[in-house]
Amino acid sequence: MKGERASGLNLINSTNLEYFPDKIKAEIFRLKGDFHLKLNDTESANIAYSNAITLFKNLPKGWISWGSYCDMVFLVTVFCLLYGS
Question: What is the model's pTM?
Fold first, then answer.
């Protein structure tokens, strides 16, 4: 539900990351990207995924999430170019 997604994003945004190691911070940013994507805020999702990978480059879920996002953007772009939408 959209309200629950917004609540989840608000919870992540209010989390104090100061006490977490970089790997956990990166996972939190990855989750933030997932929430933004579910809320159709693709630009913020891209930024969050990028921040996750920047913080901790060895985060497999981070790379998978960002790769899936990039694949989705590519497919939407190709569809729009082919079918003019």
Answer: 0.88
